[in-house]
Design brief:
Elements (H helix, E strand, L loop, with lengths): L5 E4 L6 E4 L8 E3 L2 E3 L2 H6 L6 E4 L5 E5 L2 E5 L9 E6 L10 E7 L2 E8 L7 H19 L1
Antiparallel strand pairs: 1-2, 3-4, 5-6, 6-7, 7-8, 8-9, 9-10
């Protein structure tokens, strides 16, 4: 096991907690339930980055039905990049992720999953269906 602190979310209050790993082994018991550490979750399946282009030509990351815009300009030699949800301004969305270059490819690490809006991909499908219906009605 790595010698870094383990992190997890407490079930009540949404506060983060840290314990030195030397004091804990394997899964940790928190409020009666076993909770896996971040390092245990990281050892499970890694998700690779899927890039898409916006209508304006900007490179976006597509992940679980939402797109993410770069939070900063890409610098030479940079191994990771921060991204924010594309609905950051419109819906005040706070969802974030980080992409990292690894030996096996670019991997996604989600830092905040909390979207303030429905999935963008579902919205797009619904709006395209509405547009098709509107075109049919005009004919």
């Amino acid at each position: 096991m790595p010698q870094t602190p383990c992190r997890w979310r407490l079930p009540a209050g949404g506060q983060s907690a840290r314990w030195p790993e030397s004091d804990l082994q394997g899964s940790h018991v928190l409020g009666g339930a076993q909770v896996p550490c971040q390092h245990q979750l990281a050892e499970q399946a890694q998700e690779f980055v899927e890039y898409v282009r916006s209508k304006r030509g900007t490179g976006l990351v597509y992940y679980e039905g939402n797109t993410y815009t770069p939070n900063e300009k890409l610098r030479e030699g940079q191994l990771s990049r921060d991204w924010k949800c594309s609905m950051y301004h419109k819906a005040k969305c706070r969802a974030r992720l980080v992409t990292r270059n690894t030996r096996s490819g670019e991997v996604i690490h989600v830092t905040s999953r909390f979207h303030t809006h429905p999935s963008m991909y579902d919205q797009q499908q619904k709006s395209e269906a509405r547009d098709r219906e509107a075109r049919k009605l005009k004919k």
